[in-house]
Amino acid sequence: DEDDKFFHEDEKNAACLGVTTTTTTQNGDANDEGEAVTAPGSGWTNGQVPSQFTPTMTLHPYTRSGRLMLYSHHRRWINFQSSWSRIGKGSTELDAVHKESSSGKSVMTGCLIEEAKTVRALVAQLCECFYKIGWATGTGGGVSIRVGGPAENRPYRVFVAPSGVQKEDVVGDDVFELDMDQQVVVPPKTPMLRQSACTPLWYVVYKRVPSARCVIHTHSMNAQLATLLDPTETSEALRITHLEMLKGVGNHSYDSVLEVPIIDNRPSEDLLADQLNAAILKYPKCNAVLVRRHGLYAWGDSWEQAKAQCESFDYLFEAAVKMKGMGLDCGIAPVGGTYYVDDKKVEEEKEDVEMMNGGSNGSSPPPAKRQKVEGGGGGVAPAFNGSSATNNNDDLVCSDKTDVPIVPRDSKVLLLDIEGTTTSISFVKDVLFPYVLKNLETYVGKMTDDDKKKSLAELIADVDALDENHAVKKMNPQHTIVDIVKALMGSDVKATGLKSLQGKMWKSGYASGELVGHIYSDFLPMLDWCKANDVKVCIYSSGSIGAQKLLFKHTEKGDITEYFGGRHFDTTSGSKKEAASYQTIAAALGVKPEEVIFVSDLEAEIYAARDAGVKAVVSVRPGNVPLSAETKKEFPIVRSLLQLCGDAN
């Protein structure tokens, strides 16, 4: 338009305004060339616009009227499409997309040369923007934009930023235009340039994510530090939940659990291609992949969406790093606040015998008996308790009793609880339970008729076993698997048939990779220490042996079941609140109770273990059940399992 054309040629502009170039001396006299002199403080920006100047030729952003015009209806970003809105694409009644202003459709399809010129300039503008916010310093980082395609009855074209160029100084003439075979269609006008080293990775995304139209690579410090939150640097993904900006990364909401895959860095970017491809396949809901000690790749269905999502990811990474410094885990739901409506005590939720042993509602714990440590059977176990996190900040201070037993000096047998010790206490409630509800109808639809009949009969038996005044019976759910499961889970019922179906669904979820078992970052290094020092690590949990093995076989660190050597115990060895249970386990391991160190987060279990002669240690993790003052005085406390590791001398 006229505003854009005005500054193309300085001489033409001056002639158009009928103005001569002048220089101003400090005293206001004419200069040596006899040109007119203007007084200090006067000029266009102070309102002295030449009379020839007309509204259609407004000088922006140098005049008030020009700035008014610029910020009224001229967007700052160069674009080749109608303006974009992250609100939606018009696919639902909630999408606020104007047919002209936010449709995201190309406005240059009739002039591909002009479109190419515009996209090149946009790539340059984005590079400058990313440099200014610290994502592309030292010539690092980059961006690519894809246009065209079958939907527009023309080939795809990919515009790629150059390599080794100061990103804040990139111009459109530096940008490559490629086809989908990575062949140069139109080279940059600037000679002696190389394509971005990221080019092979742009194409991994474009081929694996057909809707992607833009891929951004940053060397953001926030992204790099986020990959180091796991001190072992072996995490396959970074988990983040309950942060508002989760809404900005696509496919997630405030209380979703975002898993951003992490791949290991290599000497050159092209060597990352296979890892990037595998990560996209394994984590299809995430629109980004972190590269350890390197940066981030993020993409979107338009350059605006890619940019908005990249900004949101960076915000979340910064939050994760700062939360770590505050002692908070970004992957665990908050421990309180008005968001929560369940007022049940965590310890009461966790202690549920039926979930432990598959018995009917209201049954008493089984008598203590020797556990078959290699067992687990072929049946799918009812899993863990699904406790809510609570506020236990007071427990994060040092306890009075500091004589923490260490391995292998004080013992060569370490017995560990799971929830609240090796794994987040809210993992089941925040991850496993929502998985069942989300995938229930699909899973039931794939069951055989015989499996449906069997499962339905078990679920009906669960309902029949409830008290007549129970809320589920008052609901009178329809005799369908889906209705009964939703009713039972909605009322927090733990029953045999329900647990059996949940266990099967979780097994399927683990096998597909959609579910990943959570373990704290210090757990694997502790296991390595114990293995190197010939310390036996055993598991004693309210979750059955089958559920324990499922969790540890599919953790974010991979399969770690080998560390336990089949030494798993559940409540078939007795209630965790009874001293006899720990004596039974010690006998099964062929040691005396005083030769065992037991670590748990629940006071009742710690007292029972001590009564059996076992060395008892309290585990304090964010969200665990708060400890009593008496417990903090009488028992040693650890906030990391690595505190149990020490020299044998």
Using brief descriptors, characterize the structure shown.
20 helices, elongated, alpha/beta, 649 residues
Beta strands, count: 17
% residues in beta strands: 5-15%
Percentage of residues in helical conformation = 25-40%
Q: If you compute it from the alpha carbons, what radius of gyration comes out, rounded to the nearest whole angstrom? A: 32 Å
Structural description of this entry:
The protein is of the alpha/beta class and 649 residues long. It contains 20 helices and 17 strands. It has helices at residues 2-5, 10-17, 64-73, 112-132, 199-208, 221-226, 273-282, 303-325, 346-350, 353-357, 427-446, 449-464, 471-475, 481-490, 496-512, 523-532, 545-553, 579-589, 603-611, 629-634, and strands at residues 142-149, 154-160, 162-163, 176-178, 184-186, 194-195, 214-218, 237-241, 257-263, 288-291, 295-300, 413-416, 536-540, 568-569, 596-600, 615-619, 637-638. The protein has a 9-stranded mixed β-sheet with strand order 5-4-2-1-7-11-10-9-8, with helices on both faces. It has a 6-stranded parallel β-sheet with strand order 14-13-12-15-16-17, with helices on both faces. Strands 3-6 form a two-stranded antiparallel sheet. Helix 5 (199-208) runs parallel beside helix 7 (273-282) and helix 12 packs across helix 15. The longest helix has 23 residues, at 303-325. The protein is elongated and about 80 Å long. Residues 1-38, 90-103 and 340-383 have low confidence and may be disordered.
